[in-house]
Amino acid sequence: MIAEQAAQCGYCASGVIMQAQALLDRNPNPTDADVRSALAGFLCRCGAHNRIVRAVLRAAQEL
Predict the structure, then answer these.
(1) d(CA 56, CA 49)
(2) Is there a domain that residue 49 lies in?
């Protein structure tokens, strides 16, 4: 999240991180669509949503 500058305002960060971890636990190689679907319930108020998706995909690669 930090490397992709995805936690801009922090409003949704804790929930997004928990949901992303749950996704990666279930699916260690998610697609962009998988990540977007898993995070569909979160509203990013600061506009960092695309960076959040990139951060989850990067975490999957680095794990």
Answers:
(1) 11
(2) yes
Q: In angstroms, rounded to a whole number, what is the distance separating the alpha carbons of residues 24 and 9?
A: 23
d(CA 30, CA 10): 24
* Domain contains 56: yes
Residue in this structure with the two tokens 């997004």, named with its chain if needed: 16
Residue 31 Cα to chain centre, angstroms: 12
Show Cβ contacts of residue 34 under 8 Å, excluding neighbours closer than 6 positions.
23, 27
Averaged pLDDT, groups of 10, the chain, 63 residues long: 83 89 98 96 82 95 93
The CATH number for 54's domain is 1.10.150.120
